[in-house]
Known about the structure:
Pfam family, one: NUDIX
Organism: Algoriphagus kandeliae
Helix content: 25-40%
InterPro entries: NUDIX_hydrolase-like_dom_sf, NUDIX_hydrolase_dom
Low-confidence stretches: none
Domain Nudix hydrolase: 43-176
Number of strands: 8
CATH topology: Nucleoside Triphosphate Pyrophosphohydrolase
Distance between the termini: 23 Å
CATH superfamily: Nucleoside Triphosphate Pyrophosphohydrolase
Protein name: NUDIX domain-containing protein
Amino acid sequence: MDRYTFQKQLELYRTPYEEEAEFIADFAALTEDPLAYKRERLAGHFTASSWIVNKKRTHTLLTLHRKLGRWLQLGGHADGNENLMEVAMKEAMEESGLQNLRLVEEQIFDLDKHIIPERPHVPEHYHYDVRFLLEADMDEPLQISDESISLAWFSFDSVADMIGYNPSILRMLEKTSKSEILL
């Protein structure tokens, strides 16, 4: 998915979730900035992540993020790569050790604009996170990366209890539960 395909997908992207719909225009505007795919754009930049589910759509794979100390989907910075689908797949493999990931569809699954707190040498800034739906086998061994404290498969029933209140994760969970995508 190159920048132009991404722009076209954003033009066509519709969501019934008000909080997600509010920032689609922000994503579209950001695609015009050549620095948007680099973390050096301190006001905010694109990231890509994967909502990884098992084939039966009963579990999702989450990481306990080392820097943020929260359970999240796997993903990371584009670092200049304008193919955000490729970034999401690469990050998912690097952060989980999974080699047999399957992209469910070549469409945006979810969008989220969220603030990243200030850290030493990095000011507070926005991540414009583009999410893709991936499928994996729960029996494939996991390998924790340096970016994680832990990795675990969570049943859909237990996700809300594990993450606390995180509307974007709850939204992806709801989208997966309602998904019309063929199993």
